[in-house]
Amino acid sequence: MTKVILPEGNVTETEAGTVEEIIFRLGFNPYEVLATADGCLLLGDEFCSDDVELRLTSIVHGG
Amino acid sequence: MADCYLCGKRAVFRTEDGPLCAEHFSKWYENGVANAISRYSMVNPGDRICVGFSGGKDSTVLLAALCRLNLDCELVAVTVDEGIGGYRDDTILAAKDTALRLGVEHRIVSFKDICGKTLDELLANSPQAACSVCGTLRRRALNAAAREIDADSIATGHCLDDESQSVVMNYLRGDVTRATASFNSNSGDLFIRRIKPLCRSTERATVAYGLCNNLLVPLPECPYTRYALRKDVRTWLGKLEYEKPGTLIRIADGQEELLSKMPKAEGEKKILGRCEKCGEPTSNKLCAACQQLERLM
Questions:
Q1: What is the bridge-based pairing of β-strands A33-37 and A53-58?
Q2: ipTM of the predicted structure?
Q3: B199 with B158: CB under 8 angstroms?
Q4: Are B58 and B198 in contact (CB under 8 A)?
Q5: Number of other residues whose CB lies within 10 A of the CB of residue A31
Q6: Which domains does chain A have, with CATH numbers?
Q7: Where are the domains of chain B?
């Protein structure tokens, strides 16, 4: 399972897949969320295997 | 994994031209900001620019990008402390840290300074009005700060998404005055010029630039955001931008073209005077900020 840190800081696990598949599966719009692993931005079609820790950042700002 | 189409390194962002690595993406983003500045003649040599700097994602990227562009101008970052419990303190700390790292003069002004109360105190009985009240008072605070530092312009971190959302919101509200604002307002020299260097850059690219350049720290969301119409419009347009890329720029370009084709409605021009209470520019007896404060205090 791929570990995912959600934008608000909660942590979840999901099956391996491309960044875009994982973002969709977790209920986010891929336009509104950016994914990083080890501090590096990932493209939507990159495959995330089980050993990857994915961090999602919302592009939406405060007010 | 895709490679940068310019150098073959690992790509981090897909532009309309192709995938780019972190270095080429950063250059591409900065060029976009420089092109917007040039397209709308935002900066003149020697300008002193008051940068509205909340410490959030957009204004942090704005300040960093303006620094990196090496424009012939002086930057002063101004943070407005609205007094929002559990939110603003963290962003002010982030703002102080970023300004220090970038070597930019930084000032903080507060709602408490300009009207004696925090936003939380003003909204105790009407939180639904938060964004409207906050926006009006923040403009007042930024104008006052910009005058104090003798600024030629005020730069804000509004990006393409904000601009397109505003176009749609004006139509949803039936607000023709705002929808045609650039033609029926006559601010003369009373207002300090506003510039939006990120107005052609998407929010997605803006945040990606911040992440690529280690500019962003996790910050809390404003607790009042849930009351905003903008939140619904943002979600809707975000969905459209994903399904039909280019939606946001088409809305902004369409609005610009529409306004350019409209005859200037001389009869509708509002001549600005001064607010009877505070002296700020207004077309009414009282400016919007004083009207808001009269209702709330």
A1: antiparallel
A2: 0.95
A3: yes
A4: yes
A5: 23
A6: 2-58 (3.10.20.30)
A7: 23-296
Q: Which of B54, B207, B234 should we substitute to test contact with A (largest number of A Cβ atoms within 10 Å)? A: B207
Question: How much is the pTM?
Answer: 0.90
* pLDDT band at B227; cut points 50, 70, 90: low
- Verify whether the Cβ–Cβ distance A63 to B208 is below 8 Å: no
More confident site: B40 or B231: B40
Q: How far is B205 from chain A (nearest CA, A)?
A: 9
Among B8-12, B117-121, B233-237, the least confident range: B117-121
For tokens 């607790």, name the residue: B223
> Is-contact B160 B202, C-beta < 8 A?
yes
Shortest Cα distance, chain B CAs vs residue A60, angstroms: 8
Query: What pLDDT score was predicted for residue A60?
Result: 83
Specify the CATH architecture of the domain B23-296.
3-Layer(aba) Sandwich (3.40)
Task: Please classify residue B220 by burial: count the beta carbons closer than 10 Å to its beta carbon, then call 0-12 exposed, 13-18 middle and 19+ buried.
Answer: middle
Kindly tell me if the per-residue pLDDT of B184 is higher than 80. Answer: no
